[in-house]
């Protein structure tokens, strides 16, 4: 009788411990999970260069946008509370390209990429849904290629220029808002809006990084070391 009582008592304690552990796990947000993570996203990148380009006696009025963009980040999240964390992350992004042409062989292509460092605040809003906000800096590279009589010189487009290819670097601020739906503590899907506070592309001042709005969808994986 005593043995049965002890076994029953032990079973009750084990069940209570399991229940408490499950309850704690259900209240634990992936936003608070400390450790290393990686995410990769693809989507739509909108640049601000619009209309035609005109310089000297040349007008390039046929504009084409290549709006596919992507980014990849690695970061480390620090636990703040049971439902929030703060992270530092770094990564690389490609924000698509634009090109201007005329009826002849003249043209200008610009491609924008960036190395990025950000501070991230993660908040577990619901059991499977996290919100995040990011702020940081982008080391943006503008790659400019020209064809025909269109050339570059001294950070301007000109028919009397001396270069057909130029890479220009700028440091610009950026901000990101988004949310993560977590399938499990380690794996989730992201949706984010990124904005880079750049300038509008002009033929008279090509050494500035264009402003960008990017809408990205992707996956995040939190490593469990």
Structure description:
The protein has an 8-stranded antiparallel beta barrel. The longest helix has 26 residues. About 10% of the residues have low confidence. With 225 residues, the protein is mainly β. 12% of the residues lie in helices and 61% in strands.
Short synopsis of the structure:
The protein is mainly β and 225 residues long.
Number of strands: 13
Strand content: over 45%
Helical coverage, percent range: 10-25%
Structural class: mainly beta
Q: Look at the structure and give the mean pLDDT.
A: 82
Low-confidence stretches: 5-27
Q: How would you spell out the order of helices and strands?
A: HEEEEEEEEEEEEE
Put simply, the count of helices is 1
Largest sheet entry: 8 strands, antiparallel, barrel
What does the radius of gyration come to? 25 Å
